[in-house]
Amino acid sequence: MAQDEAGQREHRTTTVEQGRFCLARCDCGWRGPARRARSLARTDAEAHAAGG
Ligand SMILES: [Zn+2]
Predict the structure, then answer these.
(1) Domain range summary for the chain, segments of one domain joined by +
(2) What is the pTM of this model?
(3) How far is the CA of 20 from the centre of ligand 1 (A)?
(4) Buried (b) or exposed (e) across 10-31, using 16+ Cβ within 10 A?
(5) How far is the CA of 38 from the centre of ligand 1 (A)?
(6) pLDDT tens digits along 1-49
């Protein structure tokens, strides 16, 4: 497996539910804060994928 360090970094984000909360996760290892609404977690994920 080769890793492209200089290429495009694709952030594949997903939202996961933890109990009553929902949070965003990314393949790069990033994790968003726990949110009460999945829509907020998705907003976090989109902001991260956009370069946050
Ligand atoms: Zn990421």
Answers:
(1) 13-49
(2) 0.76
(3) 24
(4) ebebebeeeeeebbbbbeeeee
(5) 18
(6) 555 555 567 899 999 999 999 999 999 999 999 999 999 999 999 999 9
